[in-house]
Amino acid sequence: MSLEYITGQFAIDGEFCGAETWGSGHINDTYRAAYQHHGAVIHYVHQRINHHVFRNPEAMMDNIARVTAHLKKKLGPRAARHGLTLVPTRDGAAFCRDEDGNYWRTYHCIEGTRSYDTIQTTQQAFEAARAFGEFQRLLADFPPPRLLETIPDFHHTPKRFAALERAIGADAVHRAVNAKMEIQFALEHKPLCNILLDANLPERVTHNDTKINNVLLDEKTNKAVCVIDLDTVMPGLALYDFGDMVRTATCRAAEDERDLGKIHMEMELFEALASGYLTATNGFLTPTERSLLVASGTLITFEIGVRFLTDYLQGDVYFKVHRDGHNLDRCRTQFRLVESIAAQEPEMNRVVANLA
Ligand code: ADP
Ligand code: GN1
Ligand code: MG
Asked: Is ligand 2 within 6 A of the CB of residue 25?
């Protein structure tokens, strides 16, 4: 089995004694493995990289190695718990390949933490946003060369929309008939696509996948400990990150909730989120970026909804699915959330103005 083979490849002292699947990401396969060393049990996180999604895993790992090294320098002694640490292979590389050609990497497991798939408290919203904001701040002086775009045009919403239009046109698996309302919603909201691109915002080093389960919180105190899932750290806009936080940390329902009555943007969670993000990014956000914080929430929620719908129409070729219609269910929650955010935009903007 691949996992057993790779446990021997990394520079880990100790004897492998078992692993469990870990987390609920839609792209990679993550395992938490236990090793015994001098009577103590030490955990490591092994990840099989989805190389259909990340077409250049070597370059992606080079990005991650550079980013984690930069964070380590900036964080100093705090780095062991507040930054991800890659475990090299026995040959000193950042990843290895198994007998099937899959790419694997390993991180130190950050103990005493957990991630949440859904937001539960205002404190969590504040903490997550503070951590992602701090992450951007620490990378504000990231030195050249420019990071590779691990997925080109990842948040280029007009191109995401064009991909949807092609999927509707092709209707490869004859599902368009099941998604008439969602297709109509998408087409009606097409003008949203250019909000951020038209604003001439500064390029920064950003995370690009700031959903709430991509930050580890302390199990006991709920304080943010570490930003994880660095595969899409690359040049981007600060608001891609804030937008995805609004998407995943202001609504208590799951991304794939079937009861759309549960999908609401909650002002209290938004206020905590904006407060956490502004606390950390005060020194560098421009007035234009600040003025588009709320709009970024609408946009990114729409964009991810468009991506789920595209994948549904293409036959579930990108995101992991666990039931029939899973991507359509996810698309529906996103589009409902777009409506909820859009309806509350004026009040959300007042909240931001008061915080500033
Ligand atoms: P994916 O790309 O599939 O989303 P992630 O890198 O987000 O994978 O990891 C999946 C889950 O594994 C996370 O949500 C988190 O709960 C857990 N995890 C990942 N890295 C670590 C780590 N270094 N220490 C502890 N838990 C981790
Ligand atoms: C994926 O890997 P994960 O589960 O953190 C996706 C994000 C989406 C998200 C939707 C590389 O994130 O872009 O916003 O699912 N990651 C990639 O839940 O496509
Ligand atoms: Mg993840």
From this structure: yes
Distance 28 CA to ligand 2 centre (A): 10
The C-alpha atoms of residue 344 and residue 30 are separated, in whole angstroms, by 37
CA–CA separation, 164 and 145 (whole Å): 33
pLDDT at 356: 78
**Hey, which of 32, 54, 87, 115 would you mutate to test ligand 1's pocket, going by the most ligand atoms within 8 Å of its Cβ?**
115
pLDDT of residue 324: 98
Which residues are CB-contacts of 197 (< 8 A; sequence separation ≥ 6)? 156, 157, 158
- How remote is the CA of residue 180 from the centroid of ligand 1, in Å? 35
Question: For the structural domain made of 3-111, what CATH number should be given?
Answer: 3.30.200.20
Structure tokens at 304: 């991810």
Strand intervals (E) in the chain: 15-21, 29-37, 40-49, 96-97, 103-108, 113-114, 204-206, 215-218, 224-227, 234-236
CATH of domain 122-355: 3.90.1200.10
Q: Select from 55, 266, 50, 66 the least CA-distant residue to 147.
A: 66
Spatial separation of the C-alpha atoms in residues 2 and 7, rounded to whole Å: 9
Enumerate residues 6+ apart whose C-beta is below 8 A from 228. 84, 115, 214, 215, 216
> Among 234, 211, 214, 207, which Cα is nearest to 153's?
234
Any idea what DSSP says for residue 119? -
User: Which residue from 31, 27, 57 is spatially nearest to 44, judged by alpha carbons?
Assistant: 31
Closest atom of ligand 2 to 28 CA is 2
Name the segment(s) of the chain with CATH classification 3.90.1200.10.
Answer: 122-355
**Start-end ranges of CATH 3.30.200.20 in the chain?**
3-111
- Residue 1 has a pLDDT of 54
With a 6 Å cutoff on the Cβ, whether 147 touches ligand 1 is no
pLDDT, block means (10 residues), the chain with 356 residues: 88 96 95 97 98 97 98 98 98 96 97 98 98 98 98 98 99 98 98 97 98 98 98 98 99 98 98 98 95 98 99 98 98 99 98 94
Q: Is the CB of 150 under 6 A from ligand 1?
A: no
* CB atoms near residue 215 (< 10 Å): 27
